[in-house]
Amino acid sequence: MDQAQRAVHQPGQRSAQKSAKPTFSELFTPKLVTVWREGYHLPQFRADFMSGLTVAIVALPLSMAIAIASGVTPERGLYTSIIGGFIISALGGSRFQIGGPAGAFIVLVAATVARVGVDGLLLATMMAGVFLLAIGYLRLGTYIKFIPYPVTVGFTAGIAVIIFSGQIVELFGLKLTGKEPGPLVPKLMAIGEAAGTINLAATFVAVLTIVTIAGLKRWRPTWPAMLIAIGLASLVVALLALPAETIGTRFGGIPRSLQMPALPPVSLGRMIDVLPDAIAFALLGAIESLLSAVVADGMTGRRHRSNCELVAQGFANIASALFGGICTTGTIARTATNVRAGAHGPISGMIHSAILLALMLVAAPLASYIPLAALAGVLAVVCWNMFEKQAFATLLRASRGDALVLMVTFLLVVFRDLTEGIVVGFVLGSILFIDRMAKSIAVEADLPLVQEDVADSSGRAYDASEASDVDTVVYRISGAFFFGAASTVGTVLDRIADQRKNFILDCSAVPFLDSTAANVIEGAADKARRAGVRFIISGATPQTRRMLINHGVKRPLVTYAASIRDARAQLNGKRETQ
């Protein structure tokens, strides 16, 4: 067994690597348990109560607005925040995550309801929860973060455009002749045809809501702007008897209790029918929740457990559907509000759900007076905030590749489909990354082999024969050596037998090497053996050696050395024995 093989098969090294891996309990222990172990007392509870109250005030109108925009009744949004939000906080891997219905789901949920009805939506939500559980327990959550930034900005901006287009009818109180189309272009055409039916009262209420929110955000940023705007709009409509449609006139109000848990109709055919919707829910839920957790980490300096968070999202979606709620996920705006309000841990999110339940039980009749135009105004503000204008402009200026990924994702989301936009954007981003990485790899050649520069006090004597060894060439590879760079490096390595007797391939600056690269080196080594050239690989990490040995790059094709100096010693030893 040669030196490289002995390094690979050291049992102590394997045990050290295994012990460094986190255990199952470390990966899936909820942050609630972590916070409790740290010590939880009255001051922490007081901070969580105040932050939970603040978030509940924000979530109350937003949950109903998102539900209505999604094509379901407003109470389903509250069920989602109460049940799903509680479970996400109780079982999740983030200290500050607030769960509930999210604006990003409006397009998908509305399309699912239109196609398969509410029962189909509930079944798809439960299936998405099962998929999220599988993703979490299989520890695939760490890979969600590899979605390129231009893709997340592009699909978020696209969702904002679609949501806003869906609120135009309510913002202006328009009366469409038929059902509102789903695709953007037909929808805008239908809105244009109904422009003559504008309701000035609804328009006034929507403008009043938007101006109130904007003004409070500017002059009183700590006040609950959305709730105050909704309350003011409701009061104006009631006192002036404005002819603006309300929750009461359209939905008859909201119930004053949670519905009992129940399974939606389940059959194999039904499950196959909603499978694409469930996959889309799971994918978007994973992205949205982990992105929200990352935002919270950036604001607090904490670290979330991504796979534990996805498991909590899975249980939350299953429970939400059982209680009649819609898709739930971590919400960036409410999570950021929770952090700014001084939350200490997950109990804040649980309190937020409990307060929403109490408000629904006590104040449900008041919801009947909320104008739909006011809720549309709230969503218009949400869309404005969702569209990351500065990030969008920066990516357009950053590079052609990033701009291409951004615009393709954005346009596909707006004019085609959300899932299609994410998938195509991810593929383009991956191709762009491969191209950039392939161009970053460098191959340097030393010809002839020159003795390394040493200090005068090192005691090493100058060796003229070493410095003038024209029979030895050293190639240094710098950068990740993978399939994208295999062709470039392979072309260089094909010349190693050109009038040389000894070849040293220095891999000390190679952080990663894949099977394609190992196959290229194996081919070069085999060619060198046939030409009588001695092939030495120096500086390879244990992982690189293991990959190479597994692909047959070992004796008699090559020998390994810890450094170029050791490789020189091997060559000198060969000369002495010859």
TrEMBL record:
Keywords: Membrane, Transmembrane, Transmembrane helix. It comes from the Bacteria. Gene3D superfamilies: STAS domain. Residues 471-571 form the STAS domain. The chain crosses the membrane at residues 49-70, 77-98, 104-134, 146-168, 188-216, 223-242, 278-298, 310-333, 353-382, 403-434, 473-493. It is found in: Membrane. GO terms for biological process: transmembrane transport. Residues 1-21 are annotated as: Disordered. Its main location: membrane. This is SulP family sulfate permease.
